[in-house]
Design a protein that fits this description.
The complex is a heterodimer of chains A (573) and B (366). With 573 residues, chain A is of the alpha+beta class. Chain A is 36% helix and 23% strand. The longest helix of chain A has 26 residues. The model of chain A has no long low-confidence stretch (mean pLDDT 88). A three-stranded antiparallel β-sheet of chain B has the order 1-2-3, with helices on one face. Classes of the chains: A alpha+beta (573), B mainly alpha (366).
């Protein structure tokens, strides 16, 4: 009896499918046969537009515009000659292009194929009128990404490109379709999942000539979420303008909470190029330029020797560990001798007696060699790390790099042998193995500006309606006295008539800062300037970096002045 | 000597023959389903499936050679290893189609959830067979519940709803054969049904979506609903006679997603019509019938349990798969045994058939 239970159950279920098959294939045959003969179910996708990007004051930076694409569905083409003539006359396509497009369209005969994308509006309307009565060809509107400031802020926004066939295999389940765009760098990449809209579409039944008979279902598209940035587009514009054709980077942050007010990297690029059609040669040039590297965000991905801006760390290490105080002084004779070698100060005749104040003001190498040796490599390493060197700042942009704050253990682990005293001298003046990114330098300066706290820089402060609070800044435990001595030194750099950074002085702005001129194996020195203002209650902190830009006190300091002036004009200072 | 010739006599040529026939239909259909993607690729799908088949046949032969009692003896070990592999797959499997079901052994993508079905059959048979028809007590159901519970949850987490569901008929059928009290089993089913809303929360979004789509295909006209609609059109438009091999328009014009794997029956229905569909359903029915006949011919309870479990496994795979292609059931992602493209499923089914033959050869007759 027991095995009968199972046999009966299974037989009944088999009978159930038999009935189902009979119903589907015999009774409903006319219905399904008609649907299938016409190949009559068509899916018409509707794009879910990407979210917009706004600056801190609600100015639109990145948005979408309508673009008109002429598409054909190969199987529905009837009067081919008429369509070819139309493509030639109205859109000005060559016979070869048309033949190639038809060839490609025939590979996926049932899906719409874009013959010509991004047609000007007037032509699109003309084409739509002319093509009336021809089946298989139509004008589709798509929303297209539009970067309103072209080259300005390009490394913040990043760029989009279509998903490749291989990527599609993995992304299909996430709702990606052919020709969908995906963020490749910058915010477009970092926040891709938020920015991306959800595509909708309608499923329609069409007749044998491709005309829609009835709609079988509609799925509304959803637009992506909007991003609100900490960026002020006015400051961003001035940074990009002042950098001009030079290679380098500028970062402006709020030293109190890490909000990034501007971030520029040059050479820049126009992200619009990656969404326009017919710009493949320009794209290729941008992506393959190994010398100018326009796609690389130098502010967070470029690694450079910091040169003298690192003296802030050396001073902190020596003062904070009590190896020197504000009275400690050393005589600069123009060079520092160690064993048989010597390290030159940048001023050949020497600075004479130097304490911490004039050491910073003059950026005297001999003074810093002395105090660097007193502090020792271990203290330099641990203070460098305290200031955030050797580790990503954690800014919400992709492709940030760590940099390197070397030390004895690092050197041993790389099989480079034990640490030499001469390397400590290099360390003290920001040369040698040390590698930093511009944003790390800005963050270091922010510690001095806000009197002791390391902030985490960030760019997005709000996603749609959700506010993203700044991460709590972390006090790194420097002595008040240490910070005060360095602050005073940095003030002199700009405000003393002999200060190395006096070109950064802007009318009515009490700023402090430090210049840097970093030797590097690639050629001309890198030029740095980093500073903050106002001196007493800093609201703005910046770094200007010029690749092979000569002396830090010259161009970078002038650019900084320009930024301070603009910041004052628009009310930040 | 006597022993060996009797075994040979009982070697079920018919059963193997039917399986080969179904596989042959599968190959022909896979060829048709994949050739629209470009000929070279079409051939390579067929070629790879034949390769899997050869490996499967070797496994089948190995399964037949060793007495099923040996499998029973090590069933808990097989079961434990298989469960560990399921855990492993969750930890480091490739995510494919939104699910982690696979991992690679020496370059082969391998799907442990395909094998848990008869690891469970063997383990349950071992337990129930050892009880020798004294399964009346409620306490006797504790171990079987644990045995199914662990892999059920693990497979569900992958998430592979289809395979998880398949474990249920295996479980009940073996308990029924083993003599468990039908009253308790009835209760279990009731509790399970009552727990459904709770179970809903464990489903991934796309699984919920598929279930909702089953109730109303127009809620998702672009995704799962599209598949169901297109599949129904394919089968329905096949009519009585079908459109002929390589002539199915739904198939050849790329309207059917997943048509060489889970939805391969749509291609059969479209190209061979009701007659072809009935023929293949009949062949499956013969295999299932054979499994139940073997159960009645066998006096050994272990063997009865194995044969029943395998019969139910094949029956439910076929029923669920075909039902989903014609919209009688939600899409749960179960391959059609021996026909759908895919190595793990093919080998697992061949091993299952090997086990059936094994039981039939070595059954202790009255």
């Amino acid at each position: 009896m027991r095995d009968r239970v199972l046999t009966t159950l299974v037989s009944a279920l088999f009978l159930y499918i038999l009935i189902g098959l009979f119903y589907t294939q015999i009774i409903r045959y006319p219905h399904y046969s008609r649907l299938s003969k016409n190949n009559s179910i068509r899916v018409i996708p509707i794009d879910g537009p990407r979210g917009n990007i706004f600056d801190r004051n609600g100015k639109v930076l990145v948005t979408n515009r309508l673009s008109f694409d002429v598409v054909i569905v190969y199987r529905e083409l009837y009067k081919r000659s008429g369509i070819i003539r139309l493509l030639k006359d109205v859109l000005g396509m060559s016979g070869g292009d048309i033949a190639e497009a038809l060839e490609k369209a025939s590979l996926r005969p049932n899906s719409p194929y874009t013959v010509k994308g991004d047609v000007p509006k007037e032509k699109a309307i003309a084409f739509e009128e002319e093509s009336c009565g021809l089946s298989g060809v139509s004008v589709q509107t798509r929303s297209k990404r539009s970067y309103l400031y072209n080259n300005s802020g390009s490394h913040l926004f990043g760029y989009l490109s279509e998903v490749s066939e291989e990527e599609l295999e993995d992304l299909k389940d996430l709702g990606y379709r052919q020709r969908d765009l995906i963020g490749r760098s910058g915010l477009e990449k970092q926040y891709n999942d938020y920015l991306k809209g959800v595509d909708g579409g309608t499923q329609v039944e069409v007749d044998s000539r491709g005309r829609q008979v009835k709609s079988l279902g509609l799925q509304e598209p959803e637009s992506g979420k909007d991003l609100y940035l900490t960026i002020d587009v006015r400051l961003q514009a001035v940074c990009d303008k002042l950098l001009g054709s030079r290679n380098g980077a500028v970062v402006v942050i709020n030293p109190k909470n890490g909000e990034v007010l501007a971030l520029a990297s040059h050479p820049a690029f126009d992200p619009n190029i990656f969404v326009k059609t017919g710009t493949s040669s320009e794209r290729f040039r941008l992506l393959k330029d190994r010398i100018g590297r326009p796609m690389s965000n130098r502010a967070i991905s470029g690694l450079y020797a910091p040169g003298s801006v690192f003296k802030i760390v050396t001073a902190s290490a020596a003062l904070d560990t009590g190896k020197i105080n504000h009275n400690t002084s050393f005589v600069c004779t123009g060079s520092y001798k160690l064993g048989r070698g010597k390290l030159d100060c940048w001023k050949a005749e020497g600075h004479g007696p130097q304490n911490i104040q004039n050491g910073l003001m003059n950026s005297c190498n001999v003074f810093f060699c002395n105090i660097g040796r007193l502090a020792g490599v271990d203290a330099l390493e641990s203070y460098a790390k305290l200031y955030g060197y050797g580790k990503k700042t954690g800014i919400d942009l992709p492709d940030e790099v760590d940099g390197l704050a070397p030390g004895r253990a690092w050197k041993m682990s790389r099989n480079k042998g034990s640490w030499y005293e001469g390397e400590t001298l290099n360390y003290a003046i920001g040369q040698g193995y040390l590698m930093v990114t511009p944003i790390q330098v800005a963050r270091m300066t922010a510690v001095i500006a806000n009197k002791g706290s390391l902030v985490k820089p960030f760019v997005v402060k709000q996603i749609d309606k959700v506010h993203i609070s700044a991460e709590k800044e972390k006090n790194i435990g420097l002595k008040d006295r240490t910070i005060e001595e360095i602050r005073r030194g940095l003030f002199e750099v700009i405000n003393n008539e002999f200060g190395t950074g006096k070109r950064a002085k802007a009318e009515g702005v009490a700023a402090a800062g430090k210049t840097g001129t970093a030797q590097n194996p690639q050629g001309r020195t890198h030029a740095w300037f980093t500073g903050f203002a106002p001196y007493d209650d800093a609201k703005l902190c910046l770094v200007v970096f010029l690749e092979h830009g000569g002396k830090g006190g010259v161009e970078p300091a002038s650019i900084a002045r320009g930024i301070f002036e603009e910041a004052k004009r628009i009310g930040y200072l | 000597m006597m022993q060996a010739s009797k075994r040979l006599k009982d070697f079920d040529i018919m059963l193997i023959g039917i399986a080969l026939l179904i596989f042959a239909i599968g190959i022909v259909t896979i060829y048709s389903a994949t050739m629209a993607r470009g000929l070279a690729l079409g051939e390579s799908f067929v070629f790879r499936q034949v390769n899997w088949f050869i490996i499967g046949i070797i496994f089948l032969a190995l399964t037949v050679m060793v007495s099923y009692q040996r499998f029973i003896d090590i069933s808990y070990i097989i079961y434990t290893v298989n469960v560990l592999m399921l855990v492993l797959v969750l930890l480091l499997g490739h995510a494919r189609l939104g699910a982690q079901r696979w991992f690679s052994i020496g370059g082969f993508a391998f799907q442990p959830s395909e094998f848990i079905k008869f690891s469970l059959i063997l383990a349950l048979s071992n337990y129930v067979g050892g009880k020798k028809d004294s399964m009346r007590d409620l306490r006797d159901l504790i171990v079987p519940c644990i045995l199914i519970g662990i892999p059920f949850v693990l497979v569900l987490m992958q998430p592979d709803l289809g395979t998880a569901l398949l474990l249920i008929p295996i479980f009940f059928s073996i308990l029924i054969v083993g003599g468990a009290d039908l009253k308790y089993l009835g209760w279990m089913i009731m509790i399970g049904l009552a727990g459904l809303p709770f179970f809903w929360h464990f489903l991934r979004d796309y699984q919920k979506q598929r279930l909702l789509v089953f109730l109303n295909p127009s809620v998702d006209p672009l995704g799962a609903g599209y598949t169901i609609i297109q599949s129904k059109i394919a089968v329905g438009s096949g009519g009585l006679w079908g459109k002929g091999w390589l002539c199915g328009t739904q198939n050849q014009l790329n309207f059917l997603p997943e048509r060489h794997t889970d939805f391969i029956f749509s291609v059969i229905g479209e190209e061979w019509g009701l007659l072809g569909a009935l023929a293949i359903v009949f062949l499956y029915f013969l295999i299932v019938r054979r499994a139940f006949t073997i159960t009645t011919l066998t006096s050994d309870l272990y063997g009865q349990c194995i044969a029943t479990g395998i019969g139910m496994l094949i029956a439910f795979q076929v029923i669920i798969n075909i039902s989903m292609t014609i919209g009688l059931m939600p899409v749960v992602g179960i391959p059609l045994p021996l026909v759908s493209y895919g190595g793990s499923s093919l080998i697992a089914t061949l091993v299952a058939i090997g086990l059936l033959v094994n039981v039939e050869m070595r059954r202790s007759t009255f």
